[in-house]
Amino acid sequence: MQGATLFAAAGRVRPCASDSPHRAPSRPSPSKWQDYHGPTYLVCVLIYAGWFAATYFHAELPSVVLAALGGWIIAWHSSLQHETIHGNPRGPRWLRRLIGAPPLSLWLPYRVYVKTHAAHHRTEHLTLPGYDPESHFLSGSAWSRLGPARRTVYRASRTLAGRLLLGPPLTIVTFLHAQARLVARGDRPTARAWLEHTGWSALILVWLYFVCDMSLVEYVLLFVYPGASLSLLRSFAEHRAELSPSRRTAIVNAGPVLSLLFLNNNLHAAHHAKPTLPWFRLPEYYRQHARSLLRDNGGYLIADGYLGLLRRFGFRPISSPIHPVGR
């Protein structure tokens, strides 16, 4: 019963016909299961149980199967961390931090994620390089400083194939370089975040090395890399570099599998409109407000989903790497 509710909450969503305030509610009040954030707690249990099982039995699984399973778990955990940052699931704050803090990806400190994601949600700065820490665009001045090789990499990363293959190292190396500069300049909150992160990472490495007999290289290649690729698939088209901030955030239709993996964050314009709304209530919110959301975001709807993005932008850039405001 609970699993069916969870999967149904991640189902495919289409725009509604009306935003009329006189329209009757489409369903009764949410169940107690949703009131107490049961779907999120269930996802939490599945993620951590799956991670422990996949790492412990890694030697018994074919590499292809392990990469698919490991990538799913890391990307799903990233989606769960995102939920905790926005105040979900229901419960004490320390519990949400405990749920989100373990760095299964190894490279992103939870406290840094909390800080950078808050900056990302400042609408007036959304996608702007230098202001939005989650922007995948460059300013014109930054572009002018790049050599031919790095420009080629950035152009390739604007294709979906390049995003999945080159995106993980490009994203992680760029992030770590920026963090190292902050620590070197004496940024104490960043240093404290990395100190906490080091403690969590040490626990993960102890489990991998001494309990699972799993090398760091194997974990990075079969868990971290595919997990980062799946997360970058979600973010490939969720923001565009429009001059108007309200038109920068997309709605991407997705089937139940990817909607569950991304915890409905593919309905990204709905999430930015109601950032504290739990993931399992986003589809209903979108159905009720699709017309106004799509009006406000300039009709930025990827109706044919991620498969459509692959067909159109698998090997063709979706946009320039340079943000128009920074040109």
Brief summary of the model shown:
By secondary structure, this protein is an all-alpha fold. The protein has helices at residues 2-8, 32-35, 38-56, 63-85, 93-100, 110-120, 140-144, 148-156, 160-184, 188-211, 216-235, 256-261, 268-273, 282-296, 305-313; strands spanning 251-252, 301-302.
Please tag this protein with its features.
mainly alpha, two-stranded parallel ribbon, 327 residues
Largest sheet composition = 2 strands, parallel
Beta-strand residue percentage = under 5%
Oligomer: single chain
C-alpha geometry: globular
End-to-end separation in angstroms reads 53 Å
Count of individual beta strands? 2
How many domains, as an integer? 1
Structural class: mainly alpha
- Please state the average pLDDT score: 91
Poorly predicted parts? 1-9, 11-29
User: What gyration radius follows from the Cα positions, in whole Å?
Assistant: 20 Å
The percentage helix is: 55-70%
**Helix segment tally:** 15
- SSE order, one letter for each helix or strand: HHHHHHHHHHHEHHHEH
Strand order of the largest sheet: 1-2
How do the helices and strands line up, and which of them pair or pack?
Elements: H1 2-8, H2 32-35, H3 38-56, H4 63-85, H5 93-100, H6 110-120, H7 140-144, H8 148-156, H9 160-184, H10 188-211, H11 216-235, E1 251-252, H12 256-261, H13 268-273, H14 282-296, E2 301-302, H15 305-313
Parallel strand pairs: 1-2
Describe the protein's architecture and organization.
The structure is a single chain. With 327 residues, the chain is mainly α. The protein has one domain. 58% of the residues lie in helices and 1% in strands. It has 15 helices and two strands. The chain has a two-stranded parallel ribbon. It is globular. It starts with a helix and ends in a 14-residue tail after the last helix.
